[in-house]
Write a structure and sequence with these properties.
Helix content is 38%, strand content 23%. With 200 residues, it is of the alpha/beta class. Helix 7 (143-149) runs parallel beside helix 8.
Length: 200
Amino acid sequence: MADALFPKTHKYRTIHSMSDYRVGALMDLVGEGVPLFVDYGCHLGHVSFEVALRERTELVLSVDNFRGTEGDELMAGTVRDLAGDGGDFLFRFLENLNEMRPQLFGLIIPMRAEFFWEIAAPALRGEVDIACIDSSHRPEDDWEFAKLSELVRPGGVFCGDDYTNGHSPNVADRVDEVAADPQYSWIHQDSFFALRKASA
């Protein structure tokens, strides 16, 4: 297991962020390095920063709508705390990224989810080494799981949070659908899930 504690990135977490255990499981997957890591649902950046600080990647795409999950009152309260009535916390992510420089300069590219799907994703199909998802759990957004898994390269990993926490059955259902694809096999299956795509 990777480091049990991540003090440099704790300040960038909220109640919605991945726990130390889950971040540790993710760091084990990153291992000696991956060229392209997608942090989908990056929130305030703690996972993106953790991966980049360890110098195990050439590029991290930090993707979020930076407005929170529609209809989630707990998330809405967090967003109000982060962004006030403006409801957009991209500036908080950028402030956090600036605090982490110069170590992360050029390694992390923040990107709104809308732009990611319209512009970046078509060019990334089959190219992503690790795609980690911790975003909306609404049924309206469940298409994200299948679409993100399609971006993973042969031999790469599709992973994420909230698989068995009991609060997000929709997440478990969508992950199970990806896992049913014979291209994928389980490598980690608890609150943090991870599936490896078969090599070509």
